[in-house]
Amino acid sequence: ACRDLSGPSLRAELLYRGGTVISRLLHAVLLLKGVDFKILRTFHCLLIIGWVCALCAAIALGSTELVKLLHKALEAAQQEKRVSSMYLTAAEDKDRLELVRHKVRQIADLTSRLEALEQEKKELEQILTLRDSHIKELKEHVQLLMEKNHAKQEVIMALTEQMAQEQSDPLQEANTITVETLYKQQEEIEHLKDDIEAYKTQNQFLNSEIHQVTRLWTSVAENEKALLMKCACLQAQNCQMESKYLTVLRKLQEAVPGLPSSHAELVRNLIQEALQWDVKEKAEEGFNLNPVSEYDEYGFMTVPEYEVEDWKLLAKIQALEIKSNNLRSQEVVEKPLRDRWNSVGELSPSAELKSLIRSGIPVEHRQRVWRWIVSWRCGHRSDLYLRLLRQSKSTEHPACRQIELDLPRTLTNNKHFSSPTSQLIPKLRRVLLAFSWHNPAIGYCQGLNRLAAVALLVLEDEESAFWCLVHIVENLMPADYYSDTLITSQVDQRVFKDFLSEKLPRLMAHFEHYRIDVSLITFNWFLVAFVDSLVSDILLRVWDAFLYEGTKVIFRYALAIFKYNEEEILRIHDSVEIYQYLRFFTRMITDGRKLMNIAFNDLNPFPMKLLKNRRLMHREELEAELCELEQIKAAYVKERAEQGPQDLKEVVSEEEEEI
């Protein structure tokens, strides 16, 4: 069998496997016959010596594969020697029989492996045959391509010879060109060469000039940017100093009644000068990087107009704070944030998008993001809004009168709603009427007008604003939030007081000491999501996160507002003054970045599960209290009914008694 094989590796493999099988069979036979230990040991020694001799011969011949196989055989022989030693040293026949069975199983396993290798060999031979046939086909194809290429080369050679013959005939063009024409052409060529050299020299000079100008322009641009940054910092510091100066004046204004008359007059003059100073005129005289306009992009007044004379100084302070914050954050925060938003493609819910929305959506992206949020959470139908409008025209809703009363009182600090003739007033009316028909369980509740107005300012489209209102009332807010009893709104106030005690215990103790009920201030925050409470820039940042995450954002920002002003509140030790401060202190918050960091970083952890559990607990308590109140009311009505109507003659007025 070995002679019939073609390759040395196959012969070595067959020799190795045949020798291994024969040695193991002889070993098993000797064990079964019960041969003496010395004979068996001699057999193993001879077998190992034979394998070693074969290994040396293979090494001498330089057959690497045969050397590897003989190494394997030598290791196998040594293993069998150890097994035989175990067999002969075994104390009982039972142990020897178990060793013999183990060897038989090994032989059967090797036989099955040999058969599997034989089968694999046959499969490989078949694959080799298929590959040979495929190679043969490829060779034929290559031969055909070579013949085609040879034919093409012959055609190319023929065409080349034909062209050479045609070009060798000098009579066509040589006869048409005279000697003078050639001389003129040579002169023109020389002139053109001189012009080319001159242009090259001029071009090199211009390139060097352009390079120098570019370097100068780059240097000037960098210096200008550095100067603008420095100027922005200086203007921000100047605004801070002016704000502090006005704050001192305001403190003095509060202390005027206790000052001498001369000092009081001086304070009044300084305050009057500060109020007469116009930011716009001052900005036009000098260099202003970021002027504070009267209205922002959505029509909100940037500086409120306080009717009370004492608060006008407060408006000046607020204007300076807004300008200072804008100058500080423009290059450091706003520009990188805008670049991140510009790189956002198709919107999809993710942790990265959540973080971006919390940081605030730039004006140019806010409408697109809000539309996506509303569409993602509501999935509105395109024809529903039009049907609701037709219904509101044909049938008057019971809430129509209340809506008309609230329209002139909506966002009075916004130029798009400040006048009854504003274009957004009719749109707001239609949105509120459509919602009243869409959700008859609520109809209309005071506060919905302000929610719909903010949605209209950002989304601009009536239908989108309608679905945004639906999203807020039906998806974000809990049930019964805008019902007649406002029961869930009352529950949230109790939950908020719990959180205020846990997150800001000093402040809550201060409120309890002076018997301050914070729900008188915060109830409206929750009902309209801070509309008319915060400055417009911060308000819209709150709404960005609120529309995406839900009511938990309202709790976060409400707590953050109190933490932002905690030290100022703790310095007030009079309940009336505390209430007066809480009436307007939200309008004094101008640093939206600081407020955002407090809301989303300093107040952690803030699990939604805890909020739901607290709501459930306080709702049960409130419902029990309301039930008890109804029972008291019913008992009182019953008692009055049992007493019957009193005789008017028996009722004596106070005047008659005095007479």
Automatic annotation (TrEMBL):
Protein's UniProt keywords contain Membrane: yes
> Where is coiled-coil annotated?
100-155, 182-216
Origin species: Strigops habroptila (Kakapo)
The record's annotation in Gene3D superfamilies points to: putative rabgap domain of human tbc1 domain family member 14 like domains, Ypt/Rab-GAP domain of gyp1p, domain 3
Protein name according to UniProt: TBC1 domain family member 2
Task: State the superkingdom.
Answer: Eukaryota
One MF term from GO for this chain?
small GTPase binding
Cited InterPro entries: Rab-GAP-TBC_dom, Rab-GAP_TBC_sf, Rab_GAP_TBC_domain
Instruction: Report TM segments.
Output: 44-62
Q: Where is the Rab-GAP TBC domain?
A: 360-550
Indicate yes or no for the key word Translocase: no
